[in-house]
Each structure stands twice: as C-alpha cells, then as structure tokens.
Amino acid sequence: MERLAVSEIIKKIEAEAPFEAVAEDYSFTLKIDEYVPYVCGAVHDGHQFRKELWENCIHTEYERWFEEDPCTKEFIKTHPIVIAGCDSRFEYDLNRDPDNAIFDLAWGKQLWKEPLSPSEKKQSLEKHTEFYSVVHALISKLEEKFGTIVVYDMHSYNWRRWDREVPVINLGTSNVDNDRFGDLVESWRKSLSELQLPHDIKATSKINDTFFGNGYFLKFITQNFKNTLVLATEFKKIYCDELRELIYPEVVSAIEQQLQQKVKEHATLFYNTFNK
C-alpha cells in the first residue's frame, strides 16, 4: 500500500492504473486491483480520532465505537475496488452532507465540552471534501468505461435499541430509481437472505424496514451519476456484542467469505441486465 496525495490518487484513476493507497493524511483507503463495473464502500468503518480533539470530546472511546460500523471493510476486503473511511464519524461523518458532517449533538448527547473552532472544523471538512473528490473521479471513470455500475454501500446498525424484531440485513432504497433498478434491488435482498450464518442466525433481509437509504454517500453518487445504483446495505450487529465491544470473528468471516461470491454474482447480473 502506498501513501498518496489525493491529486495522485485521482491521476492514477484517470490513467486506469491498479493501485492500493492510503490518503496522505490517513483519512481513507482505496484499493483498485482491476477496473470492474462495481465498487464496494465502507464509509463508517473508521475509528481514528484526531488527537487534538481527545480532551474536548465528551463521548468515550466505547461510545464512539458503539455508533461506528466496525468490520464493514472486512466484509468486502477481497473485492477488486474497495474504498473505506479510516476516521471516526465523530470527527466528521462521510455519510452526511458537508453542512451536517460535524456533530454538536451525537445520538442525543452533547459531543464537545467547548464548541469546535472554525479551524478545527475546516481541517475535518477538508478531509470530507477530498474523499468525495476521489469518489467523483472513481465513479466518473467507471461509468465512462462500463456504462452502468453498482456500488455496495456497507453499513451496520445497533439492534438492542429497537423494541421490535429487526432484520439481519436492511436495504435502504428511498433515494434510488426503483422503477429502473427495483428488480436488481430485490435480487440483492434475496441473495443476502440466503447467507448461512453461525449460531443458527437466520439471515432475514428486508427493504426500508429500519433505515431508508438517506445517507450522503448514496445521495452524492445517485445525484451526480444517473447510471449507477448504490445499494445501502445495513447489517444488524450480529457479528459483535455491542454492549461489551467484542467482535465475533467467526461471524465476520462467514459474512466475508460468502460475500466474495454473492457480490460478484450480483454485480455480474446487474452489468449484464443494463448493458445488453
């Protein structure tokens, strides 16, 4: 893996060069083994938190971890194109628009002892801007090369705060073109419902049951690129004990190994459907 400036990352994309890089400021990673008509993303995988913010933050390290999406990059790591955030959403949230990416309140609790200075906010928002400049360059290149593409936008969610039974996988589709892509959304939902999980966990999968696909990563791509479907895919945190900050590696591994095939099969179906 190389450490590259965002301008260098974009040049490599434009030249269709395979590479694996971390951004110069360590805010995100991008791997491109080969240029294919699908992308895997994990914008909330990161846990890094800028040291100069530590003393001012009211939330504990555990409280931040609880709301992040650990292991979502792990689920998709073997695929040819993987983009993932390294920084915690508590510094700036890549799945929110720039005006709302920095929290004052986070899940009902004040985040900062003292309000952040304009320069502290600016430093975080520059990382948000640079990430999306790379996303724009990447999707532009892939649409130009393949016509239509699909993005697997991986997330996870805490289930203990729900007072009803919730699905193991939720797809949020309120901001995608369901008239055009609805059949492919359903085929992805069905494929995920067939996951074989340890401990007799039944892989229930639903559409717009817990979340509706309102994230900025999906909206940014969908609004800027008319031939790209973004599948906001939320896994219930069955792969960890969210109250003890404990990861279950056997569950993570089962998901990752099966997604190796399932993502590839679905991406092939998508491409063949829309590029006849």
From TrEMBL:
Domain of life, source organism: Bacteria
Entry-linked Pfam families: FGase
Gene3D superfamilies: Zn-dependent exopeptidases
Originating organism: Marixanthomonas ophiurae
UniProt-listed InterPro entries: N-FG_amidohydro
Listed name of the protein: N-formylglutamate amidohydrolase
